[in-house]
Structure formats: C-alpha cells, structure tokens
C-alpha cells in the first residue's frame, strides 16, 4: 500500500514538474513574441544585413552594391523630408530594394547608385516646390546629408575595392549614427524605419570592416 501511494505521489510530482516546465516554456515563448512585436525592425534589419552580406567578398561588384545602399539610405531620408511623410520612408525603401534586387537578378549593367542619385534629385526638387525648403522641416539637413553620403559612395566607386570597402563601411557606420539621432529625436522618418536602418547600416559596416581585417592578416 505504501509503495502504491509512493508511486502515486511520485507521478503527481512528475506531473506538476511537467506542468511547471510547460508553463515556463509558454512564458518564454510569450516573451519572445512580445520582443519581436516591439523590436521587429531590429529583427528585419538583421535579416536584410545577413542576406546582403552572405557569401560575399570585397569585390568591385560588391562595393558597387553597398555604395548604392548608402545612396539609397540617404535618399530615403531626403524623400521623407521632401514629402513631409515619415512613413514614406518604408515605401521608398521597398521601391529601392526592388530596384537593387532586380539589378542583381538580371545582372544588369546599369548603375544603381546613379539611379538613386537621380531619385534624390527628384525628391529635392519636389521638396522645394512643396515649400519644404522654407519651413525648416528637415529638407535642408537631409540635403546636406545626401550630398555627404552620396559623395563618399561615388568616391568608393572610383578607387580600389579595398579602399572602396573602407569608405562604404565608414559611410554605413556614420549613417547608423545618423539613424540613431533621428530615432532619438523621432523626426523625419518613422522610428521603426530609423531603428531598422541603423541595424542594417551598423551590421553591414562592421561586417565589411571585419572582412577587410581578416583578409589583410
């Protein structure tokens, strides 16, 4: 009888332990869901950075692609300022991403950096026409940023891949700081986009620097 009662007690304890573990797992899953719900831009940024850099080497083609990304990121801020629509940043990014993806899939000879520079010029003209240059809504600052980041991106295309890699890495990390400031101030672009862009810029810039460092060892 005692042995039987002991078995029942042991089974009960085991059941309680299993229930507790299941409850712990459920709480852990809920926490991850909450984290992803609020930090989805970070998760998306990690995925985009990984897809961009996966299996790449520092070549002329890769520097060209990353230079185009630098120009695109700056142009998106300029576009959002010109339109005075913070969520327009996401639309501009999707359009730019499609242009980059199409160029890589089709192995096209067109220069994506040039395409994005033309787009940035169109945004600037639109912003001036809409009166954003006079309102202090950010168009002037974003124009300066576009000129600075665009100049570095174009310079990276005219030098060796190694030097070009260092230039685009510096531009990306600098733009990550730009993103962080706009995220903190909650201006020009949606905070979700600023968070996403900061993650992409920082991870890509750091990955390029690490790749160059290990290659030179």
Quick synopsis:
The protein contains nine helices and no strands. With 217 residues, the chain is mainly α.
Which key phrases capture this entry?
217 residues; mainly alpha; 2 domains; 0% strand; globular
* Tally of alpha and pi helices: 9
Number of domains: 2
Kindly state the percentage of residues in helix: over 70%
- Secondary structure: number of strands: 0
The secondary-structure class comes to: mainly alpha
User: Which residue ranges are poorly predicted, with pLDDT under 50 across at least 5 consecutive positions?
Assistant: none
Radius of gyration: 24 Å
Mean pLDDT: 85
For the sheet with most strands, the description reads: none
Mass-distribution shape: globular
Distance between the termini: 74 Å
- What portion of residues belong to β-strands? under 5%
SSE run: HHHHHHHHH
Topology overview:
Elements: H1 2-38, H2 40-53, H3 60-83, H4 88-106, H5 112-129, H6 132-135, H7 139-157, H8 161-185, H9 191-216
Helix pairs in contact: 2-9, 3-4, 3-5, 3-7, 3-8, 5-7, 7-8, 8-9
């Amino acid at each position: 009888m005692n042995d039987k009662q002991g078995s029942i007690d042991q089974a009960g304890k085991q059941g309680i332990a299993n229930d507790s573990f299941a409850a712990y797992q459920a709480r852990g899953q809920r926490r991850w869901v909450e984290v992803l719900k609020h930090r989805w831009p970070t998760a998306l940024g990690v995925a985009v950075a990984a897809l961009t850099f996966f299996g790449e080497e520092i070549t002329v083609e890769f520097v060209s692609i990353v230079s185009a990304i630098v120009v695109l990121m700056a142009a998106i801020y300029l576009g959002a300022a010109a339109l005075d629509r913070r969520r327009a940043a996401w639309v501009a990014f999707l359009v730019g991403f499609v242009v980059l993806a199409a160029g890589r899939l089709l192995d096209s000879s067109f220069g994506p950096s040039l395409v994005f520079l033309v787009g940035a010029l169109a945004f600037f003209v639109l912003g001036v026409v809409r009166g954003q240059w006079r309102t202090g809504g950010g168009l002037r600052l974003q124009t300066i940023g576009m000129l600075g980041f665009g100049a570095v991106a174009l310079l990276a295309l005219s030098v060796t891949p190694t030097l070009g890699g260092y230039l685009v890495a510096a531009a990306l990390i600098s733009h990550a700081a730009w993103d962080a400031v706009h995220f903190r101030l909650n201006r020009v672009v949606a905070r979700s986009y600023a968070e996403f862009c900061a993650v992409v810029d920082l991870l890509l810039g750091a990955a390029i620097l690490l790749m160059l460092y290990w290659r030179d060892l």
